[in-house]
Amino acid sequence: MNKMKPFSAAALALTLAACDMAPKYVRPALPVPGGSPQGPAYPAGQGPAIVPADTAWKDFFVDPRLARVIETSLANNRDLRVALANVEQARAQYRVRRADIFPTVNASGSATYQDTPFSQVGTGRMDIYSASVGVSAWEIDLFGRVRNLSRAAQEQYFASVENRNAAQTALVAEVANAWLAMAADQERLRIARDLEKAFGQTLDLTKARFAKGIASELEVRQAQTSHDRARSDIAEATTLVAQDQNALNLLTGMTVAAEDLPAAMPDGDVTLSNLPADLPSTALLRRPDIMAAEHQLLAANANIGAARAAFFPNISLTAAFGTLSLGLSNLFKSGSDTWSVVPSASLPIFDFGRNRGNLRYARATYDAMVATYEKSVQAGFREVADALARRGTMTEQMEAQTSLRDAARVSYRLSEARFRAGVDPFLTTLDAQRTLYNAEQSLLATRLARAANMVELYRAMGGGLK
């Protein structure tokens, strides 16, 4: 075996000294402003804020019921399982590519039994035995073709990991939004039932007044419209609640426990509220989807190196070391050693543009990956900017909607009392009913939008992975 040591050392030295034909990678400049957008729609930073990418989702979602639903989804969601399987596929492909860098060592043995009519050894039969260990057609990677292909496979694997992470952050946000939507629909159902009851009392009173000749049939029909609208909204909200539960069951991969479902919109926050109001654009680089796009870019850069190396000689080596004898008992005795080394080289001369076409394809792919990466950054920046803009005006909108709802309640009570006393016509009460109903629905929609905005801002800033 000592005869193989010089060969092994030489081959290792050649491999380590191999040049790399891939271009030097430089991360593209971010095609977005350096800081968060400014303007009247954007809030000013107030006090210490958490870093979403460093904040675990269990810490961000403070409602224990919602946290349990998210945890169930991370364990059972089928889309997330597909993403995890894609990671394992990419890891296996990388291992296959990486193995090409090293020689594959094979052991072989053979026995030949031959009987000839003429022989100088006194008999026509010869038994030849051999055993050897060696490598076959191992490419000595002088120009980095194999290493760049391996590097490209590695970057694809890293990209699949980040795609899986992006799928998790999206799932966390989607489950939270579905849970909040169910909470809002439960609240909408409660509002519709309460107002249907109140409108029903008004309708009964109007019918009684009509029977006594005090009210007109028009007033009865007007009262009927408010009552019927509330009844219709009850049926619609009941359907929405059932559909919301079906959506949660699909996202979690199982039936969500009844105690984890919301019965109404929570009075307090279901998430932390101290999210940053401004963020440098470099923070976007921690988003999984942007990291995946950069790994795809790195893979394309490595493929350029592999395509360039195809223009240079391909050097391969076949070598074997073993023993050969005419008898099985003498196979491993002294003097039976045998070895062979067969280097070979091939240089493309006429390939009718194949290598040049592959190189152009690799460069075009790289350019496409640059554009994809830049688009991912721009899309991430817009998502954060949109969420910040929504957050910046949400407090004022909540205050206005709450004040509007409170004023509508008082107006409805006063108008109903004046109608019962015969001071105001029913049209005034009808208008107050409709105003209250719309105000209740608008306030609920604003509360839902505020909670969903916190979830979206957390996701857009790279949270939800831990």
UniProtKB/TrEMBL annotation:
InterPro entries hit by this protein: MdtP/NodT-like, OMP_efflux
Pfam families cross-referenced by the UniProt entry: OEP
Localization of this protein: Cell membrane
Superkingdom of the source species: Bacteria
Membrane association type: Lipid-anchor
Subcellular location, principal: membrane
Entry keyword set: Lipoprotein, Membrane, Palmitate, Transmembrane, Transmembrane beta strand
Gene3D superfamilies in alphabetical order: Outer membrane efflux proteins (OEP)
Signal sequence coordinates: none
Family named by the database record: Belongs to the outer membrane factor (OMF) (TC 1.B.17) family.
Name of protein: AdeC/adeK/oprM family multidrug efflux complex outer membrane factor
Organism: Sphingobium fuliginis (strain ATCC 27551)
